[in-house]
Amino acid sequence: TATKLGCTVTVVGKGSIPMLRPLGQQLAEDVQRRNEAHGVTFISNACLVEILADEAGDRVTGVVLDNGQNISCDVVIEALGSLPNTEFLLNNDIDIESGVHVDETLHALRENGEPWDNVYAIGDVARFPIPQFDPKTRRVEHWNIPTEMARKVGKLVALAHGDDRDAHAAELEKPFAPIPSFWSDQFEVSLLAYGLLDQGDDIRLLEGDVGGDCIYGYFTGDAMVGVCGIGMRSKVMGYRNKVGLNFAQ
Ligand SMILES: Cc1cc2nc3c(=O)[nH]c(=O)nc-3n(C[C@H](O)[C@H](O)[C@H](O)COP(=O)(O)OP(=O)(O)OC[C@H]3O[C@@H](n4cnc5c(N)ncnc54)[C@H](O)[C@@H]3O)c2cc1C
Known about the structure:
Layout: E1 10-12, H1 20-23, H2 25-37, E2 41-43, E3 48-53, E4 60-65, E5 70-72, E6 100-101, E7 107-109, E8 115-120, E9 126-130, E10 134-138, H3 144-160, H4 165-173, E11 181-186, E12 189-195, E13 202-208, E14 214-220, E15 223-230, H5 233-239
Parallel strand pairs: 1-2, 6-9
Antiparallel strand pairs: 3-4, 4-5, 7-8, 9-10, 11-12, 12-15, 13-14, 14-15
Helix pairs in contact: 3-4
Residues 85, 88, 123-124, 141-143, 146, 182, 184 line the site of flavin-adenine dinucleotide.
């Protein structure tokens, strides 16, 4: 990490704690505390309004925040989120509101909601339903999604061009139903998560101790919609198939 290489690191964020939405209050606070223990400074509820440069305009010298604070620095790393780049699809009768809207078999949808037979979208740009969770469509920007989507679409395209009509029809009946997952390594902290953590309104410690290795479950009623562990990797993986069960309304 930059801190381990001897750099002074300051994290500036608009929210009260970093990663609050994906992790929830308890775990986000825990991750912040662990980073602070390694010397990382956090400035919350603040936005960057200006990047300062040297006289020649060649090098960054600092940043100005909307709370008036001025921080000297040599490097600025932006992490502002992403916007789907769909302009090239304009005027093609494809619903491109907030990404390319696809159905449960990843066929792109026309503006009237009908699927195209031969147009698919996969990866970060695709806005898709996850049937075992809820009827909403969402973009999920995690590595496992484009990989699993590519597998599904590859199979559909191959079957569509093959002779086995029944196999193609059967594959069309199977909705794409991934368990979103992400991991992150920060100092000694190794996070692994499955599901849609931000959908949980009740976060429970399932195993381990707060501040040590532990696993949190994210629930809506009795349904576990997500699980996230610090350490305990194999145990977290054991929860994977329990996530999203019985949640579909
Ligand atoms: C800094 C960062 C850290 C991340 N860390 C993690 C992580 O720890 N774990 C995790 O699960 N996920 C992580 N992600 C998310 C993960 O990288 C993405 O979900 C994944 O790369 C999406 O793959 P993709 O193929 O859909 O899109 P991309 O990898 O973005 O590939 C899209 C490609 O399409 C090209 N392209 C765009 N427009 C056009 C066009 N008009 N014509 C031709 N080509 C075009 C782009 O140049 C790009 O090469 C991270 C992302 C970022 C940015």
